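Support request, please re-run this one:
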Amino acid sequence: MHNLEEIIDQTDIKHVISTKAGDQLGCVKGKIVDFVVKYIHKGIPKHNLKTVTFNEALKIGSRKKLNAPKLRADDIAFLQYTGGTTGRSKAAMLSHKNILTNVKQVENWFGNEPVTKEDFVCSPLPLYHIFSLTCNCMTFLNIGCTNLLITNPKDMNSFTKDLMKYPVTIITGVNTLFIGLLKHKNFDKINWKRYRTIVAGGTSLQRPVFEEFKKRTGKAIVEGYGLTEASPLVTCNPINPRGERNKAGTIGLPLPGTEVCFFDEKGSIVTDDTIGELAVRGPQVMKGYWNNTQETNKVLVNDWLFTGDIGYMDKDGYIKIVDRKKDMILVSGFNVYPNEIEEIIVSHPDVVDCAVVGIEDVCTGERPVAVVVKSNIDLTEEELRDHCKKNLTKFKVPVWVFFVEDLPKSNVGKILRRVVRENVVKIIQERNLKTRNVEKNS
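Re-run finished. Output below.
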């Protein structure tokens, strides 16, 4: 609200409807919940906006006659905003056909072991995020599953207690969420045996996270891939409780009715494990960006949606994402992908999380820099760089390692590399560090 207050005079907005956590919980319980959120958790920023409450809006609407419009499959259902992790957020125009098709694609992907109304789903992602909106809300609620909403998954104490308390059978999440669970003291107290499906999406699932999770629970995390512009799911590893045909390190196979291929920089299709930009074609692909023809024309070319993700397809048809095109680091003409370095750093037992970004270098063009959250205060930069040297080619070893208490993340837990990069530049400027140090890299 406080952000809207600053810009509302520059918009055509006439009415603002405000909601509270306790709006639908009754008079007594609702007031208690709202009090706790506002005064105990300090979850409501102060503002002076004139608003209509959600309950007031319902009363006003109940007195009016509904003139329901005639809907067509190609009509816009959502203006779904992209995450903005690498640049300005854009509104993807998703039609009713886009969403409903993707719901059926997800539903069919469970194959011979379908989800039923007896399944209990845990949703630690907000329902306004496209992953959770399509999968957790549209798909699982349509089937009739119970959906447990986690209001603050960053509160791992409360989150793990909920997982211990409720009979969850399906859970979705992002890489950072599974890292947080693995590091928590209650992880091994959760009854993972009853979980039939554990799905990761939103960002790449790091191999050390996959391996530790499977080792400690006996369950394989199923990784899928999607993007806002595709409603979102494009590919996924086959889903079944035993993890059969689940190929770790890949995002699986295309969903029914979905075509994928890879293009090189010249616009030609590449095959046979050759790296290129992933493009998608299918009924779940958006109509374009709202009021943004220029950006639409950049990503929608000849019915193909160019995702901005770099990867390849292996001989079995499984797809591997290497990294985001915008995040690639160019070191002396060599392509360096942050995801590869991050997987090595996270494999160190004293590392909780990390992000790798590229910074300008007068000699090599760019150099990788790592920003790390550590669990052991005694872990040093030199120790971590030595760990990287044992597992990476010399030019991929971070020239600097900065330790922080936390990494900037979106509301769904995706690391904001754009913000990380900005923070690294500030640190270097403040400390007057040179990005290339001969002694460090000798």
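Residues 438-442 have pLDDT under 50 and may be disordered. The CA atoms of residues 124 and 151 lie 7 Å apart.
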